[in-house]
From TrEMBL:
The keyword S-adenosyl-L-methionine applies. InterPro entries: Methyltransf_25, SAM-dependent_MTases_sf. It comes from the Bacteria. SUPFAM superfamilies: S-adenosyl-L-methionine-dependent methyltransferases. Keywords: Methyltransferase, S-adenosyl-L-methionine, Transferase. This is Methyltransferase family protein. The keyword ATP-binding does not apply. One of its GO terms (molecular function) is methyltransferase activity. Residues 60-152 form the Methyltransferase domain. Pfam families: Methyltransf_25 (PF13649). One of its GO terms (biological process) is methylation.
Amino acid sequence: MPDISKLAAGYLSAGDPTGWFEPLYAQAEAGGAEVPWDVPEASAHLRAFPLPPGAGRRALVVGCGPGRDAEHIAARGYATTAFDIAPTAIELARTRHPDSPVDYVVADLLDPPAGWRQGFDLVLESNNVQALPQSIRAAAITSAGTFVAPGGTLLVLAAAAVTGGGEGPPWPLTRDEIDGFAAGGLRQVSVEQTEAPGTRLHSRWRAVFTR
């Protein structure tokens, strides 16, 4: 099985900080790798979050991977779009959920479709920014907020940095980075830091923002 840190480091050193996602998924499909975040259920912090009623509202899931968070949101009535930079991840999501109402698409958080700007009542950013290096992280944080419609909600789930630095990915987010999502007209509603015992990334953020 490939070492994700080494796989990512190779692409980072070549100036392609997001290029490692597709080969990871492709290797996993071939049985030569495991995707750590490919788990059976939606994020526990998402499942515990009191989502507003979804009827008549649009949702966007950032970096959806195999789609378990997107399916959770769609089941609550949202017209849901979910995207990932890795084509194999999108193929996997569509295969696993063949009758899903979710619109699974390939897209890049750092260069998203212009039509998505302020187009969604709910935006979920779950554990994606923490997989990005410092060189592009601030841009990714800003981009996530641009999707939120007036009156809409951005929900951010991420590992919390409790010590300095370290080999990644992931690179857990600091409180300053969480606060940085409140940009471009977004207002911070709440920030919670909770413990997740028994996991490698044992401290977690759940932050809510609105426009």
